């Protein structure tokens, strides 16, 4: 029988791939905490209506890409294709719309879409996201954008990444712009792609985002929304740009960035790169006004973004290092009990450590070298009797006998343990000196 393979459009996260993925999520999680966000985790499947309402019944995601199924009770459920709708549903379901707004939320996890697998895109993929729920001020828009930029910078993938921003205006601005856009596009209707012809009456703004080359040429001369902004909408957009400049976030304006659904308004933005081929957006989002209302809550102005973990991970130039545990090596089975005591002492102290389950001294040392252990701690009969251990640096072969009580400082001075543990050891030594001086 042939070996089982992962389902099409999915992949295992193992080794370097997992470390890249984990590094992206943990970096984003840390930066989000600096901005005062709390992390939420919502179910990976929801009532289908959660996504049908939030994404639009006629959108490609809802009509073609959602993994929907009927459970044994006859309810229609859907694996989440994105994260924002679940966060908004959770805000309403948990009664959090009545007080304590705004809520600042970070999330991370798998999403599911049935689409043609391609480079950087999978049927099960992962996203990080941020939402500020219940904030109508332009400062919130600038903050979530600055947060995204800081994540990109701290990942070290900002080279060649550009922030593009646009405004979708308020409802009055959009109505005026929609009329002008339909009038312009109607004069070119015969030359539009079949898909854009269908969108012309139902959702003309989506034509601005068409990938068809013929559509792009027509759209290049289309009017922009900036000519139709109300004074209030223009002031909001100007404030967002002023705040971005204050935060030191570089940007360029792109009047073709749009969002197809009516509840989107004001700011729309994308961080793009040419390092991922055709799939150039690594993080994108915008402001939305009616999504919480679609979930049964009150009108709640919000803004947020989502980013693909796989795409950000692909941009990482260096793979984060794997954990390299110290190897505990008993010379013979007789020393195994004492070796286990040292093993547990190191782990409790925060030092990664492992012991081979079998093998003589030579085999255990071979394993230590094979897994990249920075050091081996060797215990023989004489070492146990003298309450010492032999610490062998596996990078240069040097070794020394170290009193068991001084093992942690010895590992720190040899560069085997990280800076955090070194600080902990230093604090322990200072505390011990203070305790001693107090007894005198």
From TrEMBL:
<feature type="domain" description="Aminoacyl-transfer RNA synthetases class-II family profile">
    <location>
        <begin position="1"/>
        <end position="330"/>
    </location>
</feature>
<keyword id="KW-0067">ATP-binding</keyword>
<dbReference type="GO" id="GO:0004821">
    <property type="term" value="F:histidine-tRNA ligase activity"/>
</dbReference>
<dbReference type="Pfam" id="PF03129">
    <property type="entry name" value="HGTP_anticodon"/>
</dbReference>
<dbReference type="InterPro" id="IPR004154">
    <property type="entry name" value="Anticodon-bd"/>
</dbReference>
<dbReference type="InterPro" id="IPR045864">
    <property type="entry name" value="aa-tRNA-synth_II/BPL/LPL"/>
</dbReference>
<dbReference type="InterPro" id="IPR041715">
    <property type="entry name" value="HisRS-like_core"/>
</dbReference>
<keyword id="KW-0436">Ligase</keyword>
<keyword id="KW-0648">Protein biosynthesis</keyword>
<keyword id="KW-0547">Nucleotide-binding</keyword>
<dbReference type="InterPro" id="IPR015807">
    <property type="entry name" value="His-tRNA-ligase"/>
</dbReference>
<keyword id="KW-0963">Cytoplasm</keyword>
<comment type="subunit">
    <text>Homodimer.</text>
</comment>
<comment type="similarity">
    <text>Belongs to the class-II aminoacyl-tRNA synthetase family.</text>
</comment>
<dbReference type="InterPro" id="IPR036621">
    <property type="entry name" value="Anticodon-bd_dom_sf"/>
</dbReference>
<dbReference type="InterPro" id="IPR006195">
    <property type="entry name" value="aa-tRNA-synth_II"/>
</dbReference>
<protein>
    <recommendedName>
        <fullName>Histidine--tRNA ligase</fullName>
        <ecNumber>6.1.1.21</ecNumber>
    </recommendedName>
</protein>
<dbReference type="InterPro" id="IPR004516">
    <property type="entry name" value="HisRS/HisZ"/>
</dbReference>
<dbReference type="Pfam" id="PF13393">
    <property type="entry name" value="tRNA-synt_His"/>
</dbReference>
<dbReference type="InterPro" id="IPR033656">
    <property type="entry name" value="HisRS_anticodon"/>
</dbReference>
<keyword id="KW-0030">Aminoacyl-tRNA synthetase</keyword>
């Amino acid at each position: 029988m042939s070996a089982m393979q992962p389902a099409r459009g999915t992949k295992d996260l193992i080794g370097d791939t997992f470390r890249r993925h984990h590094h992206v999520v943990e970096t984003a999680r840390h930066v989000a905490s600096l901005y005062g966000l709390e992390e939420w985790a919502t179910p990976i499947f929801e009532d289908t209506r959660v996504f049908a309402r939030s994404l639009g019944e006629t959108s490609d995601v809802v009509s073609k890409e959602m993994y929907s199924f009927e459970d044994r009770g006859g309810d229609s459920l859907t694996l989440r294709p994105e994260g924002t709708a679940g966060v908004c549903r959770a805000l309403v379901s948990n009664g959090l719309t009545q007080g304590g707004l705004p809520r600042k939320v970070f999330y991370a996890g798998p999403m599911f879409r049935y689409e043609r697998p391609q480079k950087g895109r999978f049927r099960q993929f992962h996203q990080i996201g941020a939402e500020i729920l219940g904030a109508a001020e332009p400062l919130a828009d600038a903050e979530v954008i600055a947060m995204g930029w800081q994540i990109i910078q701290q990942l070290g993938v900002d080279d060649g990444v550009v922030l593009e921003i646009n405004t979708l205006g308020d409802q009055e601005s959009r109505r005026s712009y929609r009329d002008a856009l339909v009038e312009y596009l109607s004069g070119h209707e015969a030359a539009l792609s079949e898909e854009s012809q269908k969108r012309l009456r139902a959702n003309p703004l989506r034509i601005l985002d068409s990938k068809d080359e013929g559509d792009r040429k027509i759209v290049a001369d289309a009017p922009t929304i900036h000519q139709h902004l109300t004074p209030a909408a223009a002031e909001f957009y100007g404030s967002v740009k002023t705040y971005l400049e204050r935060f030191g976030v570089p940007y360029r304006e792109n009047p073709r960035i749009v969002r197809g659904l009516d509840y989107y308004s004001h700011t729309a933005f994308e961080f793009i790169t040419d390092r991922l081929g055709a799939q150039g957006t690594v993080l994108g989002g915008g402001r939305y006004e009616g999504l919480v209302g679609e979930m049964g809550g009150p009108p709640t102005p919000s803004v947020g973004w989502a980013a693909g973990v796989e795409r950000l991970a692909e941009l990482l130039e260096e793979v984060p290092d794997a954990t390299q545990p110290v190897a505990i090596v008993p010379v013979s089975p007789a020393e195994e009990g004492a070796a286990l005591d040292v093993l547990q002492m190191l782990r409790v102290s925060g030092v990664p450590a492992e012991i081979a389950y079998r093998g003589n001294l030579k085999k255990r040392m071979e394993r230590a070298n094979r897994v990249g252990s920075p050091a081996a701690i060797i215990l023989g009969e004489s070492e146990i009797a003298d309450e010492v251990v032999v610490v062998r640096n596996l990078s240069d072969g040097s070794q020394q006998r170290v009193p068991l009580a001084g093992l942690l400082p010895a590992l720190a001075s040899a560069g085997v343990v990280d800076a955090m543990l070194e600080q902990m050891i230093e604090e322990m030594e200072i505390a011990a000196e203070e305790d001693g001086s107090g007894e005198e």
